[in-house]
Amino acid sequence: MKKAQLSIYLDPEICRQLEAFAKRQDKPKSLVAEAAIASFLSPDDSDRREAAIAKRLDRIVRVLERLERNDGITLETVALFIRFWLTATPALPEQSSPAARAKGAERYDRFVEALGRRLSSGSTIMKEVSLESNDAESLEPIKDNASST
């Protein structure tokens, strides 16, 4: 099939870029220009890009939803712990307040150190809870089979 000839006018900078690219690729300028025009006119290319962007956005949305869920669980856990602690911990007598503050500061420092160690090791409560719930789910069929025999 014979190709149609096309005469076009290019900006001098674009022409230099075309020549340099064709030279680097060791291809004729007309072949490079033809491929560029075909790519520009191809509706499939924009559809593929749009599909890829939509797929990435869906993945980002799922990650954000998971983060929101985890934040909700964390907030609820902390709130429940604080409520339980405030309910179960009696008020201290006035004379033992300085000693209690000193002991509290010491415990807080140990807590911060332990938290730092856990975070640097990569071990988290969320991972442990996830592993425990997965273990519990895998044991459920065994319990059902054992109780039915």
From TrEMBL:
<feature type="region of interest" description="Disordered">
    <location>
        <begin position="130"/>
        <end position="149"/>
    </location>
</feature>
<protein>
    <submittedName>
        <fullName>CopG family transcriptional regulator</fullName>
    </submittedName>
</protein>
